[in-house]
Design a protein that fits this description.
CATH topology of the largest domain: Dihydrodipicolinate Reductase, domain 2
Helix content: 25-40%
Shape: globular
Number of domains: 2
Order of helices and strands: EHEHEHEHEHEHEHEEEEEEEHHE
Oligomer: single chain
CATH superfamily of the largest domain: Dihydrodipicolinate Reductase, domain 2
CATH class of the largest domain: Alpha Beta
Strand content: 25-35%
Number of helices: 9
Radius of gyration: 20 Å
Amino acid sequence: MTFNVGIIGAGTIGKRLAKVFKENKEVNITHICDIAFDRAKELSETVGGTPCTDFKEIIGDPSVDFVYIGVPPELHNPIALAAIEGGKAVICEKPLAGTNLEGLEMVNAAKSTESITTVNLPFRFSTGFNRLRELISNGELGKIKFIELRFRFPQWPRPWQNVQWLSLKENGGPLREVGTHFLFALLELFGDAARVMGFVEYPDDVHSESKALGLIEMENGVKCTLSLLTPSAEPEENSLTVYGESKTVRFTSWFRLEEIRTSETIVISDVRNSSESEMVNEFVKNFNNKVEYKGVSFLEAYKALKMVNGLFESNGSWIEM
């Protein structure tokens, strides 16, 4: 059986997901929507589908089974709510929404439908990340001392991210675009967060953050530090390091898991599987068999959204989760 998808947003991430959909034999791309028609047309010529500029054209088409939403965060809420009301299943980009209130509306809408609703936070399907989860759950790291998140970008947006909104304070920035993945990782590994504190600096009133320091306390007592810098003299780094009494391990480069020792670094897992492809495969499998979907729910993504927004809103005060 083949399922029809309408893609809303033909930017960098939209193109990447379009390729994933194209490679799945059970998915047929029917529409490509973007406010810039030429961009929608260009992508449609590569992966198929009818180009358009109004997402309502997709939602109103009864042949469309699900939509992928790859637009700026402030637009996630109205499009997702309209799609759910129209009976469509939804794959939404992260972060879930622009504001906590918008995210909560999406969570409640997802509860009201039998259609699948999920968010593109694919660490759950990453080989290296799942190995990290095993090490923690098996107690191989010993008692957890603390966690460290590090983000370094020589420039932001990165050269391959050719969309302007990613550079803006309102919707863009590395904390939303990259940090959301790793804050979700904390939730996945250690349970819910209790509170966050952040110190965020901006180069001006328009552009996204250039520096951020954060403290995160999980409900189980585990504490995490966060540091972000752009531009950075260091090479790009996105890493989660877990300091245990028995071992210290680092998840980095989106797929690699390493054990850090005094004199050397040992690679534990170096398998670069396509976690986004695995996410889509799982999504399609649910359509086929009506099994319980293992992807990230709107509610789980909402918890990560609250952490991101808490870091922005904190200004040095604790924000309860």
